[in-house]
Specification:
The structure is a single chain. The protein is α+β, with helices and mostly antiparallel strands. The chain contains 27 helices and 32 strands. Strands 6-5-9-3-2-12-15-14 form an 8-stranded mixed β-sheet, with no helix packed on it. A 5-stranded mixed β-sheet has the order 17-18-19-21-20, covered by helices on one side. The chain has a 4-stranded mixed β-sheet with strand order 30-26-25-32, with no helix packed on it. The structure holds (3S)-3,7-diaminoheptanoic acid and zinc ion. (3S)-3,7-diaminoheptanoic acid binds next to strand 20 and helix 2.
């Protein structure tokens, strides 16, 4: 919606809906240019609302053809169309059947919200507020209704017509048309409505639930894509089995449909019984998909499936509660993936992701609590904070009360709230009641923005054998929230003896001794924990498994080195290695700024050699340990970021390690070469990741030939892309011929072509901005396709900090130009791309001024979408 005076919606202003809608009967007459939507809403006044509240239905861009109340045509004087597109009915009855007929134009819908066309087929996206672009309706999640949907369309254009629920009849219609009917027995909010129609083909399978119900499973794709659906189908069946086994939750319809579409604003959508997916999270073959894509499919399929209970059966009262379904469902998909592969590696990856996206958000102008207090455009709040930090908060509760009580809490949460739209308090109180543990303090995690910083101090008294650990916490102020209170922080920990073995632990006042990992709870700003009978001076291993989303600061380097080698907790081993490397790198960056020569810390080379020596047991873990801390992670630890300096130091170090450890890296690279058939199990994925980590060092040290040989001989996308991205950083002919060969081979495959764009956008070359501008003008570039837009614009702005922050300001200008061009087409994607410009406070004054100038240039555009307006204005102020 375009508006000059965007309205801020506040959580404190929540009021129950004036009217409820018990049943919805929708009839679609599909046509790309002019689709007719007839809706029959059985309305009644909500007993919980004021009995004189007006009857107002949301609408956006709808052409109203007719409205009837209880069969009688409503005269124009009783219909009030609002400037925002809504419809109010004067003198509303306390109950009645409202029938509307509207016209919409799916083929003109470039925002991809509501009903739109892609490749000649019809798809919908209704979360959060897209249903109002289909028909007039109280488009808010606390209005839950039972839907019947009849779709009529041309038989040739739309042989397949799908909606939510179970199929309920079909037949011939006039001309070459036909109809189908779908009935969804479960009440649902409008954001879960879906319709898919077109020339699609299905990959079919089935699943028998543990109570013996046979469920038909179908993945609907374009003709020719069927052979690439096997992994998605397999992931779906494993998700269904896992949710039964771990949470006792069974699927509740006869049929589960997934439709894949290449024009889609995000990853996927959990519509009841009819998930709609970005093709990126469905289609995979070894030749065309990387191991990362493979894992992404498993995760997203699981995530959307798990929403069936956490989101659909129990939904959100209002959009401020978004993390109620998203944080909980991310937690569930993380647990699923951990059970499917290596728990430790999954945790490391999730923490890496949290630090790369959520920590900067929490430290920047868009910082907001997991449960925000206000928004202008809710689409802007599908953020790493709501999703990833939200999942961490659920994990905190899981850690605090333990897995058995957590499971009881989930049972209680669902039993109490099934078929209702509820709040985060309802979730936390179910966990509290099931566990008997007071969780009041944990609400602070939902309501306070910012990442707590934790420091530790300790003292061992050999005479009394007492060890005192003092923990302190502090959360820096965030925009609009200057005062911060201490939060409950579960700290999973162990004590290591001088030889690295675990020491038994007994807190003062306790009768029994515990060994292994235990969790202590830091609740105040400062708290001391005294351990008694400690036989030797211990070294504490803190925040095992990353038991809380905090920054643990100030662990001395000698301790980090010790923990990286000896700790029993794989997360702390990895983390200590990363923190050690980060601290060395930050020192190098400072030296570089002073114009001093860059030294080299031998311990880093030693760590690489040690990691490789033990790689055989867990190659995936070794690969994680081998990769140096990312540029964003380093920037996040500097008062004033130095993106170019960070990049130069990281490359310098990579090259230096590649040279010094060349022999051992090469030996491992060769030993990890798999000659057998391509396999996608955890071990094979780990071996490829480790081999490519070795290659990255060797190629950065100058061995372009090895990268070229790998590219030429690669039999799978993981190896091909790893080599190509290293070649893309170079200047020679090898680069040009590899990129050309890749383009020639894959130009017909959108998902792979996206990778071709991204690799060039993220390359470490001086001329990258010119290249990015040229790619923007490339015939294969299409701003309307969200995947393609992200693959170039997003990859450059978020994935290439050294060049995005080029001192000329050209990187900022490119991003602003792209946002301005995209906003009228798809405001939601445009708004999401703005993020990197919001980091200006962390940059030097000169860079900051250039960034602000571009934000202002965006804000000066008339008729900006409200999402882009909100993002740009918050980023600027
Ligand atoms: N619930 C959707 C996200 C909808 C985003 C709307 N702008 C996908 C998911 O989180 O499962
Ligand atoms: Zn979700």
């Amino acid at each position: 919606m375009k508006t000059d005076t965007p309205i801020t919606i506040r959580r404190a202003d929540y009021a129950p809906p004036a009217y409820l809608v018990d049943t919805v009967d929708l009839a679609f007459d599909l046509d790309p240019a002019a689709t007719i939507v007839r809706a029959k809403l059985a309305l009644r006044r909500n007993p919980k609302a004021a009995q004189d509240a007006p009857l107002r239905l949301d609408g956006e861009g709808l052409v109203l053809r007719e409205a009837r109340l209880d069969g009688a045509v409503l005269p124009p004087e009783r219909l009030q169309l609002g400037a925002d597109g809504s419809l109010a009915i004067a003198d509303p009855p306390s109950a009645g059947l409202l029938e509307t007929m509207v016209r919409i134009a799916p083929e003109a819908n470039t925002a991809l919200s509501g009903l739109y066309t892609s490749g000649g087929n019809f798809y919908t996206q209704c979360e959060a507020e897209g249903f109002r672009r289909i028909t007039f309706f109280p488009d808010r999640p606390d209005v839950m209704s039972r839907y019947t949907v009849t779709i009529t369309a041309d038989r040739t254009l739309c042989p397949v017509m799908l909606s939510n629920g179970n199929p309920h009849g079909s037949g011939h219609a006039e001309g070459n048309r036909h109809w189908v009917r779908w009935v969804d027995p479960h009440p649902k909010p409008s954001y879960l409505f879906a319709l898919v129609a077109g020339d699609l083909i299905d990959v079919h399978d089935h699943f028998t639930t543990r109570s013996g119900k046979l469920v038909s499973l179908n993945i609907w794709v374009r003709r020719g894509d069927e052979p690439r659906c096997a992994h998605a189908m397999d992931s779906l069946k494993r998700s269904m089995a896992w949710d039964e086994e771990v949470f006792g939750l069974e699927y509740d319809l006869d049929i589960f449909n997934i439709a894949a579409v290449s024009d889609f604003n995000m990853g996927a959508m959990e519509n009841k019984g009819l998930n709609v997916f970005n093709t990126k999270y469905v289609l995979a073959s070894p030749e065309s998909a990387t191991d990362g894509d493979w894992q992404g499919i498993e995760t997203v399929i699981a995530h959307e499936y798990f929403h069936n209970w956490t989101g659909n059966r129990v939904t959100c009262r209002d959009w401020f509660q978004l993390s109620l379904k998203e944080g909980l469902t991310v937690f569930r998909d993380q647990e699923f993936s951990a059970d499917m592969g290596s728990r430790a590696v999954k945790r490391i990856r999730d923490v890496r992701g949290l630090r790369a996206a959520q920590f900067p958000e929490d430290a920047g102008p868009m910082a907001h609590p997991v449960r925000p207090d206000s928004y202008i455009e809710i689409d802007n709040f599908y953020t790493p904070t709501v999703y990833q930090k939200g999942a961490e908060v659920v994990r905190l509760i899981h850690t605090r009360i333990g897995p058995a009580a957590f499971r009881k809490g989930m049972d209680l949460y669902i039993a109490r709230n099934d078929n209702q739209a509820v709040t985060i308090e309802d979730f936390v109180s179910a966990m509290q009641d099931a566990s008997g543990i007071n969780l009041d303090g944990f609400m602070g995690w939902y309501d306070q923005a910012g990442t707590p910083e934790v420091t530790a101090e300790d003292h061992y008294d050999s005479a009394t054998r007492r060890f005192t650990l003092t923990l302190r916490q502090r959360t820096p102020p965030t925009a609009g929230q200057l005062e911060k209170k201490p939060l409950p922080i579960p700290v999973a920990m162990g004590l290591l003896g001088p030889d690295g073995t675990e020491l038994p632990m007994r807190l003062e006042g306790e009768n029994t001794t515990q060994s292994g990992t235990r969790t202590i709870l830091l609740e105040g700003a400062e708290q001391s924990f005294t351990f008694v009978d400690v036989p030797a001076p211990p070294l504490p291993s803190l925040l095992r498994g990353f038991s809380a989303p905090v920054k643990l600061k100030g662990v001395p380097r000698d301790r980090l080195r010790f923990l990286a080698v000896h700790d029993s907790d794989p997360f702390v081993r990895w983390e200590s290695g990363q923190q050690y490397a980060a601290s060395v790198m930050l020192e190098m960056i400072a030296a570089q700024q002073r114009g001093e020569a860059l030294g080299f810390d031998e311990a880093l080379a030693e760590a690489v050699t040690n990691t490789l020596a033990m790689a055989e047991t867990d190659p995936a873990f070794a690969a994680e340990a081998l990769v140096l801390p990312g540029e964003g992670f380093l920037a996040d630890q500097m008062e004033v970021a130095d993106p170019v300096g960070i990049h130069l130091v990281r490359r310098h170090l990579r090259a230096e390690i590649g040279r010094r450890c060349g022999a051992v890296l090469r030996a491992n690279y060769d030993a990890l070469t798999d000659t057998g058939p391509y396999r996608i199990d955890g071990r094979s994925i780990g071996r490829r990741a480790l081999r490519n980590a070795c290659l990255a060092y060797l190629a950065t040290a100058g061995d372009t030939l090895l990268a070229k040989a790998q590219f030429d001989g690669a039999s799978n996308m993981t190896d091909s892309l790893a080599a190509l991205s290293l070649l893309a950083d170079t200047m020679g002919e090898a680069r040009e011929s590899a990129l050309a060969a890749f383009h020639a081979r894959w130009r017909g495959d959108d998902l792979v072509l996206d990778k071709w764009f991204s690799i060039q956008a993220m390359a470490a070359r001086e001329d990258v901005i010119e290249q990015v501008r040229a790619l923007y003008a490339h015939t294969d570039f299409d701003l309307r396709n969200p995947n393609r837009a992200r693959s170039l614009i997003g990859a450059f702005a978020s994935g290439n900090p050294a060049h995005f922050h080029d001192a000329s300001g050209e990187g900022y200008r490119f991003l602003a130009d792209a946002v301005i061009a995209l906003d009228p087409i798809n405001g939601s994607i445009a708004a999401r791309l703005i993020g990197p410009l919001g980091q200006w406070r962390r940059q030097s004054e000169t860079r900051g001024a250039l960034m602000r100038r571009e934000l202002q240039r965006i804000l000066d555009i008339p008729n900006l979408s409200k999402g882009t307006f909100e993002k740009a204005s918050k980023a600027l102020h």
